């Protein structure tokens, strides 16, 4: 008996995969199997990544920084974002921003050294933007690089995929 003819239908409800079948050799019935959907992060190929789950997009001597799709999914619903002040000088690995979600608060670390030249007020006004567009309109700040060689220590997209298990 093959599964295609055996199963009449299925649906996913409350993280259960529910099957029904109608087969004359078996008593008709319904079976439920625990279903654990796997989240697949969006990992754009034009970005570099820190092991602490920030992304960097470089244009000339300025980088735009945000958190990864994987990070926002782990945090769940983001309700507050605190960004660094424009003009602040930060070192690579230094905590410089904070995000709070319904689950937890988390420091955001600068993946590179430099001076903050701009912040994204949209994520302060609407923190959920980090959940809906983490690698787009949900960016955090722009930084003028003081040590471009630090970019070499960041992960390429394929290495970041391995880090997050995808």
Question: Care to give the gist of this entry?
Answer:
With 166 residues, the protein is α+β, with helices and mostly antiparallel strands. Helices cover 16% and strands 38% of the residues.
Characterise the protein shown here.
- The strands form three sheets. This protein has a six-stranded antiparallel sheet.
- The N terminus is likely disordered.
- It has 166 residues and is of the alpha+beta class.
- The protein is built from five helices and twelve strands.
- Helix content is 16%, strand content 38%.
- It starts with a helix and ends with a helix.
- The protein has two domains: 32 residues, no CATH class; 104 residues, Beta Barrel (OB fold (Dihydrolipoamide Acetyltransferase, E2P)), CATH 2.40.50.
Q: What is the element string, with H for helices and E for strands?
A: HEEEEEEHEEEEEHHEH
The CATH class designation of the largest domain is: Mainly Beta
CATH superfamily of the largest domain: RNA polymerase II/Efflux pump adaptor protein, barrel-sandwich hybrid domain
How many extended strands? Answer: 12
